[in-house]
């Protein structure tokens, strides 16, 4: 797997934008009907409630990080999840890690495996301060969409930024550490409130920069193992509701209490678009070691 670094170009919003004028992928953020139930306080997610979730694992089958499917070839995650000389695999359609296949009524939950062929992260990613903690993985082969495998919405129109920043309650999803100190076997979701930057500074010693934000619920919070996973919200679009990714889980404090720091997705649209436009067979960019 190649690790590539891009210089972020200031003006990338040249029409036409991919998919539509609003989203990276036009048919994004849509859940299938009966199982899309919202839950709070770290409860189990329902089947198909987060069909964009990606379970990233290494060659020795160890869970590495969460991620989200943003197109049929690209996965969004955190840059700190990437390690040199590590081969990653993306498991899509994942729900309960310990079960190979499960049917609920006439519906059977299917998961698929994809090899990660390339990984991209910004050259300004700071591994100690977690600035620009964002990465995009390119899958070796395109993903076939189905009920439990669909892309999340990435807003590419900067006019949405003010509205997105005004959403106070966001939903996090992942297989991170639970109350018993173990990674969750089943996908979980949690509604999380945005917090002022001073809350992250007070409780976890983090100085938030403008392409990050702080969120947390006191004792109920995202935790280790949720890294790379999404924080998102439903937004209205053309008489429908679309699920949009707002943040990427970056880091938290001791015991995962009070607050966590998230990478602000809309602050990195330039990077995302540049990777999206980068030809899959082009290896002209220098490899980052």
From TrEMBL:
State the organism of origin: Drosophila erecta (Fruit fly)
Signal peptide start-end: 1-21
GO terms (molecular function) for this protein are: metal ion binding; serine-type endopeptidase activity
> What family does this chain come from, according to its entry?
Belongs to the peptidase S1 family. CLIP subfamily.
Alphabetically sorted, this entry's keywords are: Calcium, Disulfide bond, Glycoprotein, Hydrolase, Metal-binding, Protease, Serine protease, Signal, Zymogen
The cross-references to SUPFAM superfamilies, in alphabetical order and at most eight, read: Trypsin-like serine proteases
- Keyword Hydrolase among UniProt keywords: yes
Instruction: Name all Peptidase S1 domain ranges.
Output: 39-276
The processes (GO biological process) annotated in the record are: protein maturation; proteolysis
Superkingdom of origin organism: Eukaryota
Name of the molecule in the record: Peptidase S1 domain-containing protein
């Amino acid at each position: 797997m190649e690790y590539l670094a891009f210089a972020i170009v200031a003006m990338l919003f040249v029409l036409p934008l991919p998919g539509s004028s609003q989203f990276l992928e036009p048919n994004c953020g849509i859940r299938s009907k009966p199982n899309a139930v919202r839950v709070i306080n770290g409860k189990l997610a329902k089947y198909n409630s987060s069909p964009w979730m990606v379970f990233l694992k290494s060659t020795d089958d160890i869970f590495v990080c969460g991620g989200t499917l943003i197109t049929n070839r690209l996965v969004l995650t955190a840059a700190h999840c990437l390690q040199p000389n590590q081969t990653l695999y993306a498991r899509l359609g994942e729900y309960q890690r310990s079960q190979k296949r499960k049917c609920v009524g006439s519906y059977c939950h299917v998961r698929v495996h994809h090899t990660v062929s390339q990984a991209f992260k910004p050259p300004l990613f700071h591994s100690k301060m977690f600035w620009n903690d964002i990465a995009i993985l390119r899958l070796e082969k395109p993903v076939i969409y189905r009920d439990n495998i669909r892309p999340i919405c990435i807003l590419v129109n900067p006019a949405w930024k003010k509205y997105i920043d005004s959403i106070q309650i966001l939903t996090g999803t992942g297989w991170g550490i639970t109350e018993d100190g173990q990674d969750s076997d089943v996908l979980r979701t949690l509604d999380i409130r945005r917090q002022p930057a001073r809350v992250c500074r007070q409780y976890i010693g983090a100085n938030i920069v403008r392409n990050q934000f702080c969120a947390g619920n006191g004792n109920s919070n995202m935790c280790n193992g949720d890294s790379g996973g999404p924080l998102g919200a439903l937004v209205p679009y053309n008489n429908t509701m679309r699920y949009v990714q707002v943040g990427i889980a970056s880091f938290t404090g001791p015991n995962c209490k009070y607050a966590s720091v998230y990478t602000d997705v809309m602050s990195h649209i330039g990077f995302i678009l540049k990777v999206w436009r980068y030809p899959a067979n082009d290896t002209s960019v220098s490899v980052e070691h």
